[in-house]
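Listing S7. Sequence submitted for prediction.
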Amino acid sequence: MKEKMAQQTTLNTLEIGASGRVIAVNGDSRITRRILEMGIIPGVLVKLVKSAPFNDPIEVSVRGYNLAMRRSEAAAIEVAL
């Protein structure tokens, strides 16, 4: 039986309107801990809603609310498409 592998990327590289399921949140900084506390944990579905002028920050939808974050912070979040 052949398993279908999901394509993996980071949250900061998603196109507007694209969604993915969180695989991991990398790092051990205060910001990483805060991201986890806000509900962005492995298994959760996230969607890139929009991007501010000059592409930073971005707005993501997670667990029924919208959250703004820097692209550098989103780069630590691995997602499966």
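Caption to Listing S7: primary sequence and predicted structure tokens for the chain studied. The domain at 8-80 is CATH 2.30.30.90 (SH3 type barrels.). The mean pLDDT is 91.
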